[in-house]
Amino acid sequence: MNHIVNNILQIRSRIKEAALNTNRDPEEIKLLLATKTVTAENIKIALESGERLIGENKAQEIKSKYDALKDTPHQKHFIGHLQTNKIKELLRYDVTCIQSIDRLDLAEKLQLRLEFEKKEMDVFIQVNTSNEKSKFGIAPEKAIELTKQVSEFSNIHIKGLMTIGLFSAEEKKVRVCFKRLKDLHQQITILDLPKVEMKELSMGMSHDLEFAIEEGTTIVRIGTAIFGKRLYSDIYYWNENK
Ligand SMILES: *Cc1c(COP(=O)(O)O)cnc(C)c1O
């Protein structure tokens, strides 16, 4: 069996086991393939094994893989840091959800472009639950206000929250991040804001998906454990200027 397909089976079984451990239905947890640096050919192998959801970090990569993937059924989320000058590209290449809305001016520009193109977009609000300077996302204490502001934009539909947990060997510190996101999710749900649907919690990666599932995630984003180690460090992908 192809190693990618085999890795997906292993991830699926990790998801199942973690879900059952906390009395959750494994079916309610979606697997998003984090495909930065992965070739279109390898993404296709994953999609043809039955996967449907991918996440990219760079508009440029979405563009370069677009033709090779367009006839293979899938949905594409954007999970990287988004510069306002890249919004147009995301709309052109069929991104269905932007998981990384973390500031008002970005949402404003997105709304203007959506209006102009007569399109709509699902988004998640990205929260910096670890408070690390190196990570993007709105500070937790400002997340509710940003959610309210973004919810006013008629072509943007908020569907959930996203975070990258702390990279730490200390389980407790990682869990604190996920608990923070879940807590915000509940607070926002209670506010019952018009047009805001708190359906999804996007948290958990290759090394911490079990914790995320136990803390209530609905979407895990997995790259390394499926496609292998990347050549570039994640800082390259999470850096403003690259
Ligand atoms: C790369 C990436 C992932 C996947 O991380 P792995 O550790 O490779 O599983 C998840 N979320 C975001 C935002 C990423 O950039």
Textual characterization of the structure:
It contains 10 helices and 8 strands. The longest helix has 21 residues, at 171-191. The protein has a single domain, classed as Alpha-Beta Barrel (TIM Barrel). The model has no long low-confidence stretch (mean pLDDT 95). It is α/β, with parallel strands linked by helices and 242 residues long. Pyridoxal-5'-phosphate (PLP) binds next to strand 8, helix 9 and helix 10.
- Helix fraction, binned, reads 40-55%
Terminal residue distance: 36 Å
- What is bound: which ligands? pyridoxal-5'-phosphate
Q: Which residues sit in consecutive blocks of at least 5 with pLDDT less than 50?
A: none
Strand order of the largest sheet: 7-6-5-4-3-2-1-8
**Strand pairing plus helix content: what structural class?**
alpha/beta
* Total domains: 1
Largest sheet: 8 strands, parallel
Task: Give the mean pLDDT.
Answer: 95
**Going by CATH, what is the homologous superfamily?**
Alanine racemase
- Helix and strand sequence: HEHEHEHEHEHEHEHEHH
Summarize the structure.
This protein has 242 residues and is an alpha/beta fold.
Keywords summarizing the entry:
single chain, about 240 residues, alpha/beta, TIM Barrel, 8-stranded parallel beta sheet, 10 helices, 8 strands, globular, binds pyridoxal-5'-phosphate
Give the helix/strand layout:
Layout: H1 3-21, E1 30-34, H2 40-48, E2 53-56, H3 59-69, E3 75-78, H4 87-92, E4 97-101, H5 104-117, E5 121-126, H6 143-151, E6 156-162, H7 171-191, E7 200-202, H8 209-214, E8 219-222, H9 224-227, H10 234-238
Parallel strand pairs: 1-2, 1-8, 2-3, 3-4, 4-5, 5-6, 6-7
Helix pairs in contact: 2-3
The structure holds pyridoxal-5'-phosphate.
